[in-house]
Write the structure tokens for this entry.
Amino acid sequence: MIDYTKIMAMIEHWLQSEVNGYFGSDYGPDWNSLFLGPLSAPVANTFIEKMKSDIPILKQLSPDQLQLWSQDEGFETKVIYLRVANQVAINLNQVRDMQVARNGETFDVDAS
């Protein structure tokens, strides 16, 4: 039986994965589309849809049980939170910062 703790483990695994990290699959969060766009860009729905396509069990949750919201922090910073089942709020900024610290950032030297 799949319960809340197993769903949270699936979400944590998904958040720690790199997008396109599995050969032949685009599994994982696209942090760049979430964090590197304009602050007013409506990215929550596409992020949640990507999460639901990668973790099909989440399609059974109602919109009230899987939410993404942001909070302004200062002039040019938004902190983005993920709430699952109205119980846990995950700070996605911290998750991404830990992943960047672990893996490092990559740059395209041929970018124009």
Summary: Helices lie at 4-16, 31-35, 44-54, 92-103. The longest strand covers residues 66-72. The mean pLDDT is 81.
